[in-house]
Amino acid sequence: MNRWLFALPIAAFLVLAAVFGIGLTKDPSVIPSQLIDRPLPAFDLPGLSADAPGFGSKDLTGKPLLLNVFASWCAACPQEHPMLTKIAREGVPVYGLAWKDQPADSAKWLSEWGNPYTKVASDPAARTGIDLGVTGVPETFVVDKRGRVRYKQIGPIDEVVWTTILKPMLAKLEAEA
Amino acid sequence: MNRFLLATLLAIAVPAHAVLPSEQLADPALEARAREISKELRCVVCQNQSIDDSDAPLAADLRVIVREQLRLGKTDAQAKEYLVTRYGSYVLLRPPFRYDTWLLWLGPFAVLLAGAGLVIAWLRARRGVAETPALTPQEQARLDALTKD
Fold first, then answer.
1. What is the pLDDT of chain A when averaged over all its residues?
2. Phi, psi of A97 (to 5 degrees)
3. Any CB–CB contact under 8 A between A130 and chain B?
4. Alpha-carbon gap, residue A39 to A56, rounded angstroms
5. How far is CA B143 from CA B137, B147, B149, in A?
6. Residue spans per domain, chain B
7. Which of A34, A91, A94, B6 has the fewest CB atoms within 10 Å, i.e. is most exposed?
8. CB A161 within 8 A of CB A86
9. Can you tell which superkingdom this protein's organism belongs to (chain B) (predicted)?
10. Which spans in A25-145 are helix H?
């Protein structure tokens, strides 16, 4: 037994190195959503202006859709914007939640960059976003036909996220009863 | 003199906190409870700070929510639970003991026990060396022969 004792620290080191190695591949800023497979929290929010009505959680049923959280102050949102425009053109309903943002600022941002959203709801008080467990912008929820959250994308949607995760998932949800 | 001044200043200095006067509750007892709860809740933006320490706008929103819950007459546990249902047990700076956290809580003790086991094994092995049986007469004779010159 003593002859093998020398191997113990080496084995311990290898195990630790493996654990930390796996840890390094994980993004600590990604906080798992508590809403997966659960219905959206109830909300009913106004739009950005009187002639642009908002939406409520009840409106987000019937068809798989994306609920995108954005803000005019968000640095990564312009980066994501062309992808959202493309996704909306492919016929996917994309609802926008303007989080911690004054409606006038959100409206100005959308007039500058273009508005890919089916509808936009304004959440300047941040409460709906907090109910959704939003930690930052942009974040995007995949909502199924029954209004349940099925996936949360943290950070901007890029080509890879769209083609490998979101698009196949929406197709699968479309096929669900 | 300067040294005295410095010591005095250091003695009366208190750590700066992120809580803004506008967020504070009028009731000092309730405010004190809110501060204690906030220290236990992780800011989800700057993840190694509590919401009590963080200047992030979202941390301020969460502090206000904690105070709101207390004003509604909720207990400390209920106020924390409000945020846990939204952000997960991740927001608790002191993680609960659960099926997915047992390694976190028990791991250090397991390592300590393993270390103690090793030390005991090593001590035993050493005592074994000390208790080497005495030389047989033949061996003694050979040793004497070898060391004679």
1. 93
2. -115, 110
3. yes
4. 13
5. 10, 6, 11
6. 15-91, 102-147
7. A91
8. no
9. Bacteria
10. 77-89, 103-113, 127-131
Nearest residue to A169 (alpha-carbon basis) of A37, A35, A31? A37
* Burial readout B67-106 (b: 16 or more C-beta within 10 A, e: otherwise): bebbeeeeeeeebbebbbebbeebbeeeeeeeeeeeeeee
**Is the N-terminal amide bond of A138 cis, ω within 30° of 0?**
yes
Burial of B12 (0-12, 13-18, 19+ CB in 10 A): exposed
Could you tell me which chain B residue has the CA closest to the CA of A8? B118
C-alpha distances in angstroms, B9 versus A121, A169, B3? 51, 60, 10
DSSP state of A151: E
**Phi/psi class of residue A100: alpha, beta or left (left: φ > 0; alpha: ψ in -120 to 50)?**
left
Q: How many CB atoms lie within 10 A of CB A136?
A: 20
A53 in contact with B, Cβ within 8 Å: no
With a cut of 90, say whether residue A41 has pLDDT above it.
yes
Q: Would the pLDDT of A120 be above 60? A: yes
Q: Which residue of A has its CA nearest to B57?
A: A100
Chain B contact for A100, CB < 8 A? yes
Cross-strand partners of A44:
A56
Structure confidence by residue, pLDDT tens digits, A144-162: 999 999 999 999 999 999 9
A67: phi then psi, degrees, rounded to nearest 5: -115, 110
Identify all chain B residues contacting A128, using CB atoms and an 8 Å cutoff: none
Tell me: the pLDDT tens digits for A47-75?
999 889 999 999 999 999 999 999 999 99
| Domain B15-91 CATH superfamily | Cytochrome C biogenesis protein (1.10.8.640)
A25 touches chain B (CB under 8 A): no
Which domains are delineated in chain A? 35-175 (3.40.30.10)
Please answer whether residues A62 and A149 qualify as being in contact, where contact means their C-beta atoms are separated by less than 8 angstroms.
no
From the number of C-beta atoms within 10 Å of its C-beta (0-12, 13-18, 19+), residue A129 rates as: buried
What is the pTM for the complete model shown? 0.78
